[in-house]
Write a structure and sequence with these properties.
transmembrane helix, membrane, OB fold (Dihydrolipoamide Acetyltransferase, E2P), alpha+beta, 6-phosphogluconate dehydrogenase, transmembrane, five-stranded antiparallel β-sheet, elongated, 123 residues
């Protein structure tokens, strides 16, 4: 009976580790999006995560919500600096997310400031 319990808990531990590794290292999709960075904040009561939103339409009807992992300090600093600007972000979409990572399945990995055809018109 003791051997069964050890094997059972060992199998549960291995399955859990494989699940977390799959969710973290295997992306569902990767891509880029561009728009006006309208919100970026450090949210949460017990678990603080970095969350943001990009408006992809003129009326604000299309909002892209995203998270940033705490380990991406450079991305966090750039997003703070570019608040209110037109930006292009590169992201990874995961199969699922956990509270310690962020509220969304989309995780921004890099950000660049861009020129917008909507905001930079010559009159």
């Amino acid at each position: 009976m003791k051997k069964f319990i050890i094997i059972f808990f060992g199998a549960v531990l291995v399955i859990t580790a494989v699940f977390f590794a799959f969710v973290y290292y295997v992306p569902y999709s990767e891509g880029t999006r561009a728009g006006e960075l309208i919100q970026f904040s450090h949210r949460g009561v017990l678990i603080k995560t970095w969350e943001g939103e990009i408006s992809q339409g003129i009326s604000g009807a299309q909002i892209f919500s995203f998270s940033v992992l705490d380990e991406d300090k450079d991305v966090i600093d750039k997003l703070k600096e570019y608040q209110g600007s037109y930006v292009k972000v590169t992201y990874v979409q995961r199969y699922t997310s956990f509270a310690i990572w962020g509220e969304t399945k989309f995780f921004v990995t890099s950000v660049e400031k861009e020129n917008s055809s909507h905001f930079n018109r010559d009159y």
